[in-house]
Amino acid sequence: MSEITGVVLDAMGGDHAPAEMVKGAVDAINRSRQVKVFLVGREETVKHELEKYTYDKNRIQVVNASEVIETAEPPVNAIRRKKDSSIVVGMKLVKSGEADAFVSAGSSGAILVGGQTLIGRIKGIERPPLAPLIPTAKGASLLIDCGANVDARPSHLVQFARMGSIYMEHVIGIKNPKAAIVNIGAEEEKGNALVKETFPLLKKLTDINFIGSIEARDIPYGKADVIVSEAFAGNVILKLYEGLGAVLIGKIKEGMMSTLRSKIGAFLVKPALKETVKQFDAAEYGGAPLLGLKGLVVKTHGSAKAKEISNSIIQCITFKEQRINEKIMACIQADSGSDE
Amino acid sequence: MSEITGVVLDAMGGDHAPAEMVKGAVDAINRSRQVKVFLVGREETVKHELEKYTYDKNRIQVVNASEVIETAEPPVNAIRRKKDSSIVVGMKLVKSGEADAFVSAGSSGAILVGGQTLIGRIKGIERPPLAPLIPTAKGASLLIDCGANVDARPSHLVQFARMGSIYMEHVIGIKNPKAAIVNIGAEEEKGNALVKETFPLLKKLTDINFIGSIEARDIPYGKADVIVSEAFAGNVILKLYEGLGAVLIGKIKEGMMSTLRSKIGAFLVKPALKETVKQFDAAEYGGAPLLGLKGLVVKTHGSAKAKEISNSIIQCITFKEQRINEKIMACIQADSGSDE
Lengths: 340, 340
Prior knowledge:
Two copies of one chain form a homodimer.
Chain A: E1 5-10, H1 19-31, E2 35-41, H2 43-50, E3 60-64, H3 75-81, H4 86-95, E4 101-104, H5 108-119, E5 133-135, E6 140-144, H6 154-172, E7 178-183, H7 193-203, E8 209-215, E9 226-228, H8 231-256, H9 260-279, E10 288-290, E11 296-299, H10 306-321, H11 324-335
Parallel strand pairs in A: 1-2, 1-4, 2-3, 4-11, 6-9, 7-8, 7-9
Antiparallel strand pairs in A: 5-6, 10-11
């Protein structure tokens, strides 16, 4: 019998909680027999939602948490004070080993703070980066870090490159993934102070496939699998991806509706374009893992619906099966004492 | 009789020099009677290109420059050593007052260095930012700085916001343009150290319409007219715009060609979509001004063709007519001694 992955789902976080969270949980256990979901939130509300579905009752367990952390709350305070919130209660299930992973569409800040203070970092990891997959012409690349640690130091970026490479190889299945650092020119001497300091450190690593700098222009073409970036620029990349994609697709739809001729054409191209748009839909890839913690924490979009939630839960199975955290530990420990 | 704007065009810079440069110059003088172009480059080559056209010979003057600065050359060295290059000879015409503006599709680095050392900064301006217009759902926004000054200080960003606001109001014609600082959240307390320090300085300015932070997601929607950013993030925004736009449009074309049905549809929507794609074509907006210099310097894309060159030359007329540099000087001097 294969192993079961226990995933805590924050039933109260996100714009579409609890309905879409519960739907996503039911969908996930129907897709895979290897997962069990702990639905954490207000018990009555969650159970009421669950009544809509028929599902294997042994594989969804409702855990009561009476409080909810709102997106606007200052995260450190919220984690400290709301001891009975879905985030705090859920993360403690991971800390205690009852569950393997925690998935939430709730407050990014609270998830970052909770992940570090309640679950804790793997020994040797300086900062845990948030690493979403972003769509490219070739498939998807991992953007690491997209917002967890602004004003990071070179040694942090080095760890991001390593953890990102492990993730892409063993969770996404890309052999010897190409890692690159976001820069404003292709040459080694280009960049800001952080990139100039980090570049030679990445260059001398032997355990990753570092291909040098990547200009933002080349990211959508899929020229690298692991896109290493300080969180501020990474966040700009992630959000511009979302905004520009939406505006361009909106403009194209508008253009197609502008004349009678184009309206007829639009009717004919629609099925084919649906596929294209889907390839650039972030929901297809599930949430973003917060790497380097003792346990897996996944942050989905605040706007996540059942599909993204279900995909995020399924993602956790591979993460556990591939023993990603053991690989991260081995890689960091092999290095300790060698440089910096 | 109205004033004539003298524009120096680097005939040797860019992927399509000299042919497209010369074509752009001829096009510009045919579009406006208020401009005279100095075509700087290898005289024989330039004259040979010019023979293809009929044009008013009083309004294009060929100025010989025997050397060319290549894109790969270290800029400081190139400007110092190649005294007879098109960039050095051309910029000296602006310095001496014989011409008002300098336009080039050549080496960004050499243009930045030359602009500062040969033409010089307006008194009080700490750093000259490169400020391209980027397409949005509403029209275009000014992205300032997109790569001239990495690791900038808060006082630099404050000057960028002011210069950008003057440019958008008087060159592009947007009344009371909305200025925002690129950030990773909408709240004032979010951001990296630079943004946190700069935000309150921008907030207390009374001469610009500062609307607070802008997340990268909202840039393509046109939520601000002046997008203030440190050069590294600005460069990432500009280049991701180019790359993502190209990949998405490419994917959509590919999608349209995937079935017989969609091919017929594509034929019908094509004319309407051409308009949409044109709205997101950077060439429509001409080049990016390097603001804050004693004279106007405009950097076009390296891949610029005649249309972008011609648009860039025409842009210089408004810049001179609106006395942008006098407005920048007045604004900076009004401020001197008041803060920082």
